[in-house]
């Protein structure tokens, strides 16, 4: 079993020490005003109801659309996400002031971004995580987002029932339907760093499904800014909380990965274009399309395929939901096997989606002062799959997106059954294969 010492990406102000669970009250809530079933029913939180657009427009089309539509009830990015994030900062809910962190663009052709974030490193306690399994069952005894305080929640995020954008500043929580929420990241990487937690009360493990990815694309589309991106880390690719969530923040510079050249591979039915990254240290695929549903479906199929085949990966949602970068990686595996140089290990940088995209979050002043394009490239090159392995993974992905993947095989039957795949043991799950061109994509070898 491979294990590495890791620092959690998010530690709520309400995370409990071991043994505290017994002190919770059985009636009248737990006293923490948390997001769990003990406190959430009967609560009221802001609700942003988005219009389920099927197409994302840009340029002149965007201007024409804005002329047709009435002003939204609230400016989603400026007033709601960033404005409420600043409100929580004024209330002292963050573990450190991320706006005081030094940031610079590293000289060079790619424009890697370096940030010195010593607070993120020093104000966490280490936790042990497995890195050899992308699919792991949800464990309610470990930290999860039902344990955060409701004051950390910015708003509920749901599709509008009447097809129009609506905002309710004090809406009752429909706990029976498990709301999706946007909450602050109390250990932020950048300005406006938030978490999108789909269907929080369902306690979904960290694995992408079609519904959750489409929700993330709707959030990117609502923000409508090229500088507001969403990211996802699978288990084994430096996700550290096994409770389904996406991260997002605002940074007003282009990411290096967004500027790199690509080579077109194919265009799927539905207009989704798939390309491969060129001249970048991490090998990956780029999915582009104007239809949120078609784009989301293609990428979700690819992610589910990677999950079933136990391949760690990261996802960057860019360009207001029009571009998605899919990045399989192997750094944690190399780290656990002792194949990463001591020089890189000493930096204590764990390259997740933001680092892979070119935003290097550094924990030591010496690394920040000596940051160079060469150093960034050397670290990210260790993240990437080899050319041979990437070609193998690419073939698996393209086989998967040409058929219908049954998501039920990656859902656990219950929270106390340690199984990776519906109705299958770990050994059986490892024998699953993708068969191209068949409606029954999953077979046993």
Q: Can you tell me about this structure?
A:
- Its main location: cytoplasm.
- Residues 256-402 form the GDPGP1-like C-terminal domain.
- It comes from Heracleum sosnowskyi.
- GO terms for molecular function: GDP-D-glucose phosphorylase activity; guanyl-nucleotide exchange factor activity; hydrolase activity; nucleotide binding.
- One of its GO terms (biological process) is glucose metabolic process.
- Mean pLDDT is 83; it is low at 1-27, 124-128 and 404-445.
- With 445 residues, the chain is an alpha+beta fold.
- A hairpin with a 4-residue loop joins strand 15 and strand 16.
- The protein has a twelve-stranded mixed beta sheet with strand order 7-2-6-8-9-11-10-15-16-14-13-12.
- The chain has helices at 59-68, 76-90, 118-122, 210-223, 256-259, 292-308, 331-336, 342-346, 353-357, 365-369, 373-383, 387-400, 426-429; strands at residues 3-6, 44-50, 102-105, 113-116, 127-130, 153-159, 166-172, 181-184, 194-197, 228-233, 246-250, 262-267, 273-277, 285-288, 313-318, 323-328, 359-362, 432-434, 442-444.
- The protein is built from 13 helices and 19 strands.
